[in-house]
Amino acid sequence: MILIDGKKVSASIQEKIAAEVKELANAGERPPHLVAVLVGDDPASQTYVRNKINACKKVGFKSTLIHLEPYTSEAKLLQVIAGLNADSEVDGYIVQLPLPSHISQQKVIEAIHPSKDVDGFHPMNVGRMVLNLPAYVSATPYGIMQLLEHYRIETSGKHCVVVGRSHIVGSPMSILMARNTPIGNATVTLCHSKTQNLKEITLTADILIAAIGRPWFITADMVKPGAVVIDVGINRVDDNTSPGGYKLMGDVDFENVKARCSYITPVPGGVGPMTIASLLKNTLLARKKIIY
Ligand code: GUN
Predict the structure, then answer these.
(1) Please, what CATH class does the domain formed by 28-113 belong to?
(2) What is the mean pLDDT of residues 10-37?
(3) Pocket around ligand 1: residues whose beta carbon is below 6 Å from it?
(4) Domain residue limits, the chain
(5) Ligand 1: distance of its center to the CA of 225 in Å?
(6) Using CA atoms, how far apart are residues 198 and 190, in angstroms rounded to an integer?
(7) Fold annotation for 139-272
(8) Do 28-113 and 139-272 agree at the fold level?
(9) Which of 48, 138, 236 gets mutated to test ligand 1 (max ligand atoms within 8 A of its CB)?
(10) What are the pLDDT digits (tens) for 231-279?
Protein backbone atom coordinates (compact mmCIF):
# COMPACT_ATOMS: atom_id res chain seq x y z
CA MET A 1 0.00 0.00 0.00
CA ILE A 2 1.31 3.45 -0.94
CA LEU A 3 0.21 6.40 1.14
CA ILE A 4 -0.52 9.38 -1.10
CA ASP A 5 1.27 12.36 0.42
CA GLY A 6 -0.84 15.38 -0.51
CA LYS A 7 1.21 17.63 1.74
CA LYS A 8 4.40 16.86 -0.16
CA VAL A 9 2.84 17.20 -3.62
CA SER A 10 1.11 20.43 -2.61
CA ALA A 11 4.40 21.83 -1.25
CA SER A 12 6.22 21.07 -4.49
CA ILE A 13 3.46 22.75 -6.55
CA GLN A 14 3.61 25.77 -4.25
CA GLU A 15 7.40 25.98 -4.71
CA LYS A 16 6.91 26.14 -8.49
CA ILE A 17 4.25 28.83 -8.08
CA ALA A 18 6.54 30.87 -5.79
CA ALA A 19 9.28 30.66 -8.44
CA GLU A 20 6.84 32.00 -11.06
CA VAL A 21 5.89 34.89 -8.77
CA LYS A 22 9.61 35.75 -8.51
CA GLU A 23 9.85 35.72 -12.32
CA LEU A 24 6.93 38.14 -12.49
CA ALA A 25 8.66 40.42 -9.97
CA ASN A 26 11.93 40.26 -11.93
CA ALA A 27 10.00 41.37 -15.02
CA GLY A 28 8.62 44.33 -13.05
CA GLU A 29 5.11 42.86 -12.88
CA ARG A 30 2.83 42.80 -9.86
CA PRO A 31 2.12 39.50 -8.08
CA PRO A 32 -1.21 37.65 -8.44
CA HIS A 33 -3.92 38.99 -6.15
CA LEU A 34 -6.56 36.70 -4.63
CA VAL A 35 -9.51 38.02 -2.64
CA ALA A 36 -11.48 35.77 -0.29
CA VAL A 37 -14.97 36.78 0.76
CA LEU A 38 -16.26 35.21 3.97
CA VAL A 39 -19.79 35.86 5.22
CA GLY A 40 -20.42 34.98 8.86
CA ASP A 41 -18.47 33.08 11.49
CA ASP A 42 -18.75 29.38 10.61
CA PRO A 43 -15.63 27.94 12.30
CA ALA A 44 -14.74 25.48 9.53
CA SER A 45 -15.13 28.19 6.85
CA GLN A 46 -12.95 30.55 8.89
CA THR A 47 -10.23 27.90 9.06
CA TYR A 48 -10.41 27.19 5.32
CA VAL A 49 -10.24 30.88 4.42
CA ARG A 50 -7.36 31.50 6.83
CA ASN A 51 -5.45 28.61 5.25
CA LYS A 52 -6.04 30.04 1.77
CA ILE A 53 -4.84 33.51 2.79
CA ASN A 54 -1.76 32.07 4.52
CA ALA A 55 -0.93 29.98 1.44
CA CYS A 56 -1.09 33.15 -0.70
CA LYS A 57 1.40 34.85 1.60
CA LYS A 58 3.76 31.88 1.45
CA VAL A 59 4.01 31.91 -2.36
CA GLY A 60 4.23 35.71 -2.60
CA PHE A 61 0.68 36.45 -3.79
CA LYS A 62 -1.15 39.51 -2.61
CA SER A 63 -4.28 38.49 -0.72
CA THR A 64 -7.23 40.30 0.77
CA LEU A 65 -9.83 38.95 3.15
CA ILE A 66 -13.26 40.58 3.04
CA HIS A 67 -15.03 39.37 6.18
CA LEU A 68 -18.71 40.33 6.24
CA GLU A 69 -20.99 39.93 9.21
CA PRO A 70 -23.51 37.03 9.28
CA TYR A 71 -26.56 39.24 8.58
CA THR A 72 -25.07 40.84 5.47
CA SER A 73 -27.86 41.17 2.90
CA GLU A 74 -27.74 39.46 -0.47
CA ALA A 75 -27.85 42.89 -2.14
CA LYS A 76 -24.80 44.03 -0.16
CA LEU A 77 -22.86 40.88 -1.08
CA LEU A 78 -23.78 41.32 -4.75
CA GLN A 79 -22.50 44.90 -4.50
CA VAL A 80 -19.17 43.67 -3.12
CA ILE A 81 -18.98 41.16 -5.97
CA ALA A 82 -19.68 43.85 -8.58
CA GLY A 83 -16.81 45.86 -7.07
CA LEU A 84 -14.44 42.89 -7.32
CA ASN A 85 -15.49 42.24 -10.93
CA ALA A 86 -14.63 45.84 -11.81
CA ASP A 87 -11.33 46.00 -9.89
CA SER A 88 -8.44 45.47 -12.32
CA GLU A 89 -6.07 44.86 -9.39
CA VAL A 90 -8.01 41.72 -8.42
CA ASP A 91 -7.07 38.71 -10.54
CA GLY A 92 -9.39 36.20 -8.91
CA TYR A 93 -11.65 35.82 -5.93
CA ILE A 94 -13.66 33.27 -4.05
CA VAL A 95 -16.82 33.52 -1.99
CA GLN A 96 -16.52 30.87 0.71
CA LEU A 97 -19.45 28.45 0.82
CA PRO A 98 -21.80 27.68 2.44
CA LEU A 99 -23.45 31.09 2.63
CA PRO A 100 -26.05 31.99 5.28
CA SER A 101 -29.47 30.66 4.25
CA HIS A 102 -30.95 34.13 3.51
CA ILE A 103 -28.51 34.51 0.58
CA SER A 104 -29.02 32.66 -2.70
CA GLN A 105 -25.84 30.73 -3.37
CA GLN A 106 -26.72 30.35 -7.04
CA LYS A 107 -27.31 34.08 -7.54
CA VAL A 108 -23.96 34.83 -5.94
CA ILE A 109 -22.07 32.25 -8.03
CA GLU A 110 -23.63 33.58 -11.22
CA ALA A 111 -22.65 37.14 -10.28
CA ILE A 112 -18.94 36.26 -10.18
CA HIS A 113 -17.31 37.14 -13.49
CA PRO A 114 -16.16 33.84 -15.07
CA SER A 115 -12.68 35.27 -15.72
CA LYS A 116 -12.19 35.85 -11.97
CA ASP A 117 -13.97 32.70 -10.80
CA VAL A 118 -10.88 30.83 -9.57
CA ASP A 119 -13.14 28.38 -7.70
CA GLY A 120 -14.56 27.27 -11.06
CA PHE A 121 -18.15 27.34 -9.76
CA HIS A 122 -19.73 29.64 -12.39
CA PRO A 123 -21.88 27.80 -14.97
CA MET A 124 -19.58 29.15 -17.70
CA ASN A 125 -16.55 27.43 -16.14
CA VAL A 126 -18.48 24.26 -15.32
CA GLY A 127 -19.78 24.12 -18.91
CA ARG A 128 -16.37 24.77 -20.43
CA MET A 129 -14.87 22.08 -18.18
CA VAL A 130 -17.48 19.58 -19.40
CA LEU A 131 -16.64 20.45 -23.01
CA ASN A 132 -12.89 20.14 -22.34
CA LEU A 133 -12.34 23.82 -23.16
CA PRO A 134 -9.94 26.02 -21.15
CA ALA A 135 -11.69 26.68 -17.82
CA TYR A 136 -11.07 27.15 -14.14
CA VAL A 137 -11.61 23.71 -12.64
CA SER A 138 -12.80 23.63 -9.05
CA ALA A 139 -9.95 23.21 -6.65
CA THR A 140 -10.65 19.86 -4.97
CA PRO A 141 -11.30 17.82 -8.14
CA TYR A 142 -8.38 19.58 -9.84
CA GLY A 143 -6.18 18.67 -6.85
CA ILE A 144 -7.21 15.01 -7.05
CA MET A 145 -6.35 14.93 -10.78
CA GLN A 146 -2.90 16.30 -9.92
CA LEU A 147 -2.40 13.62 -7.26
CA LEU A 148 -3.32 10.87 -9.74
CA GLU A 149 -0.89 12.41 -12.24
CA HIS A 150 1.92 12.76 -9.69
CA TYR A 151 1.67 9.13 -8.60
CA ARG A 152 1.30 8.00 -12.25
CA ILE A 153 -1.90 6.13 -11.41
CA GLU A 154 -3.40 4.61 -14.55
CA THR A 155 -6.93 5.89 -15.10
CA SER A 156 -7.54 5.03 -18.76
CA GLY A 157 -10.08 2.22 -19.09
CA LYS A 158 -10.36 1.83 -15.31
CA HIS A 159 -13.64 1.81 -13.44
CA CYS A 160 -13.82 4.95 -11.33
CA VAL A 161 -16.61 5.11 -8.78
CA VAL A 162 -17.37 8.53 -7.31
CA VAL A 163 -19.58 8.52 -4.22
CA GLY A 164 -21.30 11.88 -3.73
CA ARG A 165 -22.65 14.27 -6.38
CA SER A 166 -22.00 17.70 -4.86
CA HIS A 167 -21.43 20.56 -7.29
CA ILE A 168 -18.08 21.27 -5.63
CA VAL A 169 -16.52 17.78 -5.73
CA GLY A 170 -18.46 14.68 -6.82
CA SER A 171 -20.13 16.00 -9.95
CA PRO A 172 -17.06 17.72 -11.49
CA MET A 173 -14.88 14.77 -10.43
CA SER A 174 -17.06 12.36 -12.40
CA ILE A 175 -16.83 14.57 -15.50
CA LEU A 176 -13.05 15.03 -15.26
CA MET A 177 -12.40 11.30 -14.90
CA ALA A 178 -14.51 10.52 -17.98
CA ARG A 179 -12.98 13.19 -20.26
CA ASN A 180 -10.63 12.23 -23.07
CA THR A 181 -7.50 13.64 -21.38
CA PRO A 182 -4.21 12.09 -20.18
CA ILE A 183 -5.65 11.70 -16.67
CA GLY A 184 -9.19 10.59 -17.48
CA ASN A 185 -10.64 8.13 -19.97
CA ALA A 186 -12.07 6.16 -17.06
CA THR A 187 -15.42 4.42 -17.07
CA VAL A 188 -17.22 6.41 -14.42
CA THR A 189 -20.08 5.57 -12.09
CA LEU A 190 -21.49 8.39 -9.97
CA CYS A 191 -23.22 7.11 -6.82
CA HIS A 192 -25.41 9.18 -4.50
CA SER A 193 -27.97 8.95 -1.75
CA LYS A 194 -30.53 7.21 -3.99
CA THR A 195 -28.12 4.55 -5.26
CA GLN A 196 -29.59 1.19 -4.32
CA ASN A 197 -26.74 -1.28 -4.63
CA LEU A 198 -23.88 0.92 -3.45
CA LYS A 199 -21.63 -1.79 -2.04
CA GLU A 200 -22.02 -3.93 -5.15
CA ILE A 201 -20.82 -0.97 -7.22
CA THR A 202 -17.97 0.20 -4.98
CA LEU A 203 -16.64 -3.36 -4.92
CA THR A 204 -16.01 -3.05 -8.69
CA ALA A 205 -14.10 0.25 -8.38
CA ASP A 206 -10.47 0.35 -9.49
CA ILE A 207 -10.48 3.95 -8.31
CA LEU A 208 -12.88 4.86 -5.50
CA ILE A 209 -13.42 8.53 -4.74
CA ALA A 210 -15.35 9.18 -1.52
CA ALA A 211 -16.94 12.63 -1.33
CA ILE A 212 -19.98 12.01 0.83
CA GLY A 213 -19.35 14.11 3.92
CA ARG A 214 -20.08 11.28 6.37
CA PRO A 215 -17.35 10.00 8.68
CA TRP A 216 -16.03 6.52 7.88
CA PHE A 217 -18.88 5.83 5.45
CA ILE A 218 -16.66 3.65 3.23
CA THR A 219 -15.78 0.47 5.11
CA ALA A 220 -13.31 -2.27 4.18
CA ASP A 221 -16.03 -4.62 2.92
CA MET A 222 -16.91 -2.03 0.23
CA VAL A 223 -13.42 -1.86 -1.28
CA LYS A 224 -12.01 -4.10 -4.01
CA PRO A 225 -8.55 -5.45 -3.14
CA GLY A 226 -5.89 -3.37 -4.93
CA ALA A 227 -8.14 -0.34 -5.41
CA VAL A 228 -6.95 3.27 -5.36
CA VAL A 229 -8.93 5.07 -2.63
CA ILE A 230 -9.24 8.85 -2.58
CA ASP A 231 -10.85 10.28 0.56
CA VAL A 232 -12.28 13.78 0.15
CA GLY A 233 -14.03 13.87 3.53
CA ILE A 234 -13.05 16.39 6.20
CA ASN A 235 -15.66 15.70 8.88
CA ARG A 236 -15.43 17.45 12.23
CA VAL A 237 -16.42 14.98 14.92
CA ASP A 238 -16.70 15.95 18.60
CA ASP A 239 -13.77 14.63 20.60
CA ASN A 240 -13.11 15.75 24.18
CA THR A 241 -9.57 14.39 24.10
CA SER A 242 -8.51 16.68 21.20
CA PRO A 243 -7.27 20.23 21.95
CA GLY A 244 -9.92 21.89 19.74
CA GLY A 245 -12.74 19.67 21.05
CA TYR A 246 -13.07 17.90 17.71
CA LYS A 247 -11.09 15.61 15.43
CA LEU A 248 -11.08 15.35 11.66
CA MET A 249 -12.38 12.14 10.16
CA GLY A 250 -12.42 11.20 6.51
CA ASP A 251 -15.26 9.51 4.61
CA VAL A 252 -13.17 6.32 4.61
CA ASP A 253 -12.48 3.99 7.53
CA PHE A 254 -8.77 4.46 6.88
CA GLU A 255 -7.32 1.98 9.39
CA ASN A 256 -9.36 -0.94 8.08
CA VAL A 257 -9.43 0.03 4.41
CA LYS A 258 -5.72 0.75 3.93
CA ALA A 259 -4.66 -2.90 3.99
CA ARG A 260 -6.83 -3.61 0.92
CA CYS A 261 -5.62 -0.70 -1.24
CA SER A 262 -2.79 -0.12 -3.68
CA TYR A 263 -2.94 3.62 -2.91
CA ILE A 264 -4.85 5.63 -0.33
CA THR A 265 -5.03 9.26 0.78
CA PRO A 266 -4.93 10.01 4.53
CA VAL A 267 -7.11 12.60 6.31
CA PRO A 268 -5.63 15.06 7.04
CA GLY A 269 -2.69 15.36 4.65
CA GLY A 270 -4.20 13.85 1.50
CA VAL A 271 -6.66 15.75 -0.66
CA GLY A 272 -6.96 18.81 1.63
CA PRO A 273 -3.55 20.39 0.94
CA MET A 274 -4.06 19.85 -2.80
CA THR A 275 -7.18 22.01 -2.76
CA ILE A 276 -5.08 24.99 -1.69
CA ALA A 277 -2.39 24.29 -4.29
CA SER A 278 -5.07 24.17 -7.02
CA LEU A 279 -6.61 27.46 -5.93
CA LEU A 280 -3.17 29.09 -6.10
CA LYS A 281 -2.62 27.55 -9.54
CA ASN A 282 -5.94 28.95 -10.77
CA THR A 283 -5.07 32.38 -9.36
CA LEU A 284 -1.74 32.33 -11.19
CA LEU A 285 -3.58 31.39 -14.40
CA ALA A 286 -5.90 34.35 -13.77
CA ARG A 287 -2.95 36.72 -13.29
CA LYS A 288 -1.42 35.52 -16.53
CA LYS A 289 -4.80 35.66 -18.29
CA ILE A 290 -4.32 32.14 -19.65
CA ILE A 291 -7.92 30.90 -19.49
CA TYR A 292 -9.74 34.10 -20.52
N1 GUN B 1 -16.62 25.38 0.67
C2 GUN B 1 -16.12 24.13 0.66
N3 GUN B 1 -15.18 24.00 -0.31
C4 GUN B 1 -15.11 25.20 -0.92
C5 GUN B 1 -14.32 25.68 -2.00
O6 GUN B 1 -13.50 25.00 -2.62
N7 GUN B 1 -14.53 26.98 -2.32
C8 GUN B 1 -15.43 27.77 -1.68
N9 GUN B 1 -15.56 29.03 -2.09
N10 GUN B 1 -16.18 27.34 -0.69
C11 GUN B 1 -16.02 26.06 -0.30
Answers:
(1) alpha beta
(2) 98
(3) 94-97, 119, 139-140, 168
(4) 28-113, 139-272
(5) 32
(6) 10
(7) Rossmann fold (3.40.50)
(8) yes
(9) 48
(10) 999 999 999 999 999 999 999 999 999 999 999 999 999 999 999 999 9
